[in-house]
Specification:
Strand 6 and strand 7 (164-165) form a beta hairpin. This protein starts with a helix and ends in a 9-residue tail after the last helix. The radius of gyration is 21 Å and the shape is globular. It has an 8-stranded antiparallel sheet, with helices on one face. Strands 6-7 form a two-stranded antiparallel ribbon. The chain is an alpha+beta fold and 371 residues long. It has 14 helices and 10 strands.
């Protein structure tokens, strides 16, 4: 299971290049499906959960490319594995499930490369989801659609002529599709234009929240946000994808224009932010998660404005995952590190120390020559 999560045989999906990745960090397509003749997970009785999981797992085992998927029971996941899946957005954090009274998934089906992740018995019986670097809803939808089409040869999904696919939440009925994107808006936030983007998203019936809610107290850590569609009933899947693409491209264009204007008029503030971020990263012994996300944001800002060199956007986007607590815990448990004596006896300090080391290694080749 640990090998599946960490893709030891290749680079994880978030390490690769993608369209509009200077603003659109990643995108995801998710299809919600439920089996006919079974209640939704929140109304399960008796052995419903076990039966649905067995049926779904069996259907995946009969796909044309079944060898490329791994079916995992949630009960077999270690605490660290679950934390990594939460950090990657595969499953919802336990605290969020409790707050929203959502049932915990009973299993997960994942592709070997980690791009496709399908929780079983979460809010619905099955979510078919695919992640992509940058803005790429179309290829993700195509992959999800192929899996959905194969599964429908084995399974009967709940649907009606009037409502389309039936889901636990009415907003997901219809196509059953939800589109989301993780975006970076340092210029928009710094220039005081975030409210304009928020109003625009509200008009487009999209929701927005900090991309790292657990560490975003009062403001989004690193100015990273997660935007997503609120309804699966507005036209066909292709219509919904076209609309979300248009939204993301508009936001990216606005951010790039605002960033250029901000850099032209507030160049000293920008340079100061980049230099401070680099200095903190280079000389700190301990770095918290919030500090790390803010550092990556400012270094990415400097890279976009051509104020530094020696690192690329893909490496910085990948670093957003690599500096998470779960990923660092896995690295710490599988590697050998010579921690300082006072750090060695404190689990929290070890994570923060390893985070500082990880960032410093990633920034080794950075040059601030243009500053």
């Amino acid at each position: 299971m640990e090998q599946t999560i960490n893709e030891v045989n290749g680079l994880p999906w978030y390490s690769y290049d993608g369209q509009n990745r200077d603003v659109i960090i990643s995108s995801r397509v998710r299809l919600a499906r439920n089996l006919a003749n079974f209640p939704f997970p929140a109304q399960f009785r008796g052995d419903d959960k076990e039966r649905v999981q067995a049926i779904v797992f069996d259907a995946f085992s009969q796909l044309d490319n079944a060898a490329g998927f791994h079916a995992i029971e949630s009960a077999s996941l270690s605490e660290n594995s679950r934390q990594i899946l939460e950090e990657r957005g595969v499953i919802k954090p336990s605290a969020e499930k409790k707050a929203c009274r959502l049932p915990s998934e009973s299993g997960i089906v994942m592709s070997a490369d980690g791009k496709i992740c399908c929780p079983v018995n979460c809010s619905d019986h099955l979510h078919i989801a695919r992640f992509s670097s940058g803005l790429d809803f179309r290829s993700s939808f195509e992959e999800c659609r192929k899996i959905d089409a194969q599964l429908q040869k084995k399974l009967q999904f709940a649907a009606s002529y009037d409502f389309g696919y039936l889901t636990a939440a009415m907003r997901n009925a219809g196509s059953g599709m939800k589109l989301s994107a993780r975006i970076h808006l340092p210029g928009t936030v710094r220039f005081g234009k975030l409210s304009v983007i928020l109003d625009y998203l509200k008009q487009k019936n999209c929701s927005v929240m900090p991309a790292f809610p657990a560490i975003s107290q009062g403001s989004a850590a690193g100015n990273f946000f997660l935007i997503s569609t609120n309804s699966a009933q507005n036209g066909s899947e292709i219509d919904q994808i076209a609309e979300m693409e248009s939204i993301c491209k508009y936001i990216a264009e606005c951010e790039c224009k605002i960033l250029k204007d901000f850099a032209d008029n507030k160049s000293t503030l920008i340079r100061n932010s980049v230099i401070r971020a680099y200095s903190i990263a280079k000389f700190s012994m301990l770095v918290s998660l919030r500090e790390a996300v803010d550092i990556i944001s400012d270094i990415k800002l400097g890279l976009q404005l051509h104020l530094l060199s020696g690192i690329d956007i893909n490496a910085l986007c990948s670093l957003l995952y690599r500096i998470q607590d779960g990923h660092l815990s896995y690295l710490m448990n599988t590697g050998s590190f010579d921690f300082e004596k006072d750090v060695l006896c404190d689990g929290r300090m070890k994570i923060d120390r390893l985070r500082a080391i990880t960032i410093q290694e990633s920034f080794e080749k950075i040059s601030l020559g243009n500053l």
